[in-house]
Amino acid sequence: MMRKCAMFLFILGVACYIIMLILIKQPDEYFGQVYNVHIINGFTNNSSLPLVVWCNADDGADMGGRALQERDEFSWSVKTTFWKSTQYLCTMKNDNQRRSFQAFQRRRDIQRCSPTRECFWLVKEDGFYFSNDEIYWRKDFSWTLN
Question: Is the peptide bond before 115 cis (omega within 30 degrees of 0)?
């Protein structure tokens, strides 16, 4: 009887420990969090030809296309969970340049978009720049595939 009681208490303790780790460490990753994704036209001379953006979610949802003039923005919200791999693939076209890239990828972006939960993409003549605060930008992709 004492042995069964000790085993029960041990299993109960391990279960409580695991639950506490989940709740303390990364509750957003397990229970879901909303992130805002923004694509901004950073071209400086495209008054006649807009930046065309077309995005699709990995679950097949087509978000449609947008024609962005200088400084225009296309944005949407993404709810992530531990149980679902959330990704958004966007294709950009300007003049003769065309490039597809992952605008949001849960595994990559839940860390780098935090703590603001904002993911900004500034598309310029030489490539795609990422920021989570619109102050510090880092070039992630070029227009050409190297």
Answer: yes
User: By the 8 A CB rule, do 41 and 70 touch?
Assistant: yes
CB 38 within 8 A of CB 73: yes
Question: Where along the chain do its domains lie?
Answer: 1-31, 32-142
Domain 32-142: CATH class, spelled out: mainly beta
User: What is this structure's pTM?
Assistant: 0.76
- The Cα–Cα gap between 146 and 138 comes to 17
Q: What b/e string do you get for 15-44 counting C-beta neighbours within 10 Å, with b at 16 or more?
A: eeeeeeeeeeeeeeeeeebebebbbbbbbe
pLDDT tens-place string over residues 35-88: 999 999 998 876 667 889 999 988 878 888 899 998 999 999 988 876 666 889
Dihedral sign (CA 133, 135, 136, 140)? positive
